[in-house]
Every structure is written in C-alpha cells, then in structure tokens.
Design brief:
By secondary structure, this protein is of the alpha+beta class. Helices cover about 40% and strands about 10% of the residues.
Length: about 90
C-alpha cells in the first residue's frame, strides 16, 4: 500500500488548479482513479501523471484483480471543466 500512496502523492504534486491538460481513458473520456478531477499545467506533466497512473493501477490490480485496465491518454481540458488540484487532492489514499 505504501507504493500506492507514493504514486498518488507524485500525481498530486504534478496537478494544478489552472492546468489545461487531463489524463483520461481514450475510449470513454473519463479520468480514472487516481487522476479523476486532476488537471496538469503542461502536456509533459500530464504525460508523467499518465505514466504514474498506469503504475498506480497496475499496483492496485495486485490487490484487486478486477481493477479496470484503461487506455490512458492526455487531452486538453475543456474550458469551464471543473477539474483541478483541489478536487484531485481530496481523494483518500
């Protein structure tokens, strides 16, 4: 579980309130845990968060084999979309 907290903290550190990029599932457009509600300042920051999310979900799958696998991608956040670091950091670890 320690690794999950570390990965989530790294994602939180990359997130920002005014970020213009999100990490989402390429098929459904939703951001899975741990990036649901998170925004990122740059495409490279969002891509790093995507990589961390892949690692997070792989680790989570070790505890819960039914954890969904997503094809994650980086997308520009829509104007007015209620994403940001505040909502990202409210998730429990």
């Amino acid at each position: 579980m320690h690794q999950l907290c570390t990965l989530r903290r790294q994602i939180d550190e990359l997130s920002t309130v005014a970020g213009g990029y999100r990490v989402v599932c390429a098929q459904c457009g939703m951001g899975p845990v741990p990036v649901s509600g998170c925004a990122f300042e740059t495409p490279s920051g969002a891509d790093r968060a995507r990589q961390l999310t892949v690692a997070y979900r792989a680790r989570l799958r070790e505890f819960d084999p039914q954890t969904t696998v997503h094809d994650l991608t980086v997308r520009a956040a829509l104007s007015g979309c209620p994403v940001g670091a505040a909502s990202c950091r409210t998730h429990s670890h």
